[in-house]
Amino acid sequence: MFMRIMKLVNRLYGVITLISYKPLLKLLIDRDIKKTDLMKIAEISSSTMAKIGKGEYVALEVIDRICAALGVQPANIIEYVPAENNSDSK
Questions:
Q1: Distance CA 38, CA 32 (A)
Q2: How large is the average pLDDT for residues 49-53?
Q3: What number is the average pLDDT over the span 83-87?
Q4: Which residues, at least 6 apart from 29, have a Cβ–Cβ distance to it below 8 Å?
Q5: CA quadruple 24, 29, 32, 34: dihedral sign
Q6: Would you place residue 65 in the very low, low, confident or very high pLDDT band (cuts 50, 70, 90)?
Q7: What are phi and psi of 20, to 5 degrees?
Q8: What's residue 81's pLDDT?
Q9: Cβ neighbours of residue 27 under 8 Å, at least 6 residues apart?
Q10: Residue among 90, 74, 72, 70 nearest 20 (CA)
Q11: Long-range contacts of 8-14, Cβ-Cβ distance < 8 Å, separation of 24 or more
Q12: What is the average per-residue pLDDT within 36-49?
């Protein structure tokens, strides 16, 4: 039910996320790992990778797979962005 409400809100007002994947993208650059390589080693789909690229929510299982594949903690690949910082990005 919650996900249906979130999808409706996203459709009406645009995607507003409180989680950023910028640390993951920076880590990939630092380690010279392509997104396609990450998809293979973490066994995640292209649609999930697209969600990450758009800053959309992904399942915690995906975060777990990425952490295991890269040998890092969740704080190394995601960061919390307070809501007031998101209002400017619309």
A1: 11
A2: 94
A3: 57
A4: none
A5: positive
A6: very high
A7: -115, 140
A8: 85
A9: 33, 70, 72, 76, 77
A10: 74
A11: 14/90
A12: 96
8-state DSSP, 18: S
Residues constituting the chain: 90
pLDDT at 45: 96
Amino acid at residue number 48: T
Q: Is the pLDDT of residue 8 over 80?
A: no
What is the residue whose two structure tokens read 């920076």?
Answer: 26
Q: What confidence category does residue 3 fall into, taking pLDDT thresholds of 50, 70 and 90?
A: low
CATH superfamily entry for domain 15-89: lambda repressor-like DNA-binding domains (1.10.260.40)
In 3D, which of 50, 42, 45 has the Cα closest to residue 67? 42
SS3 state at 19: strand
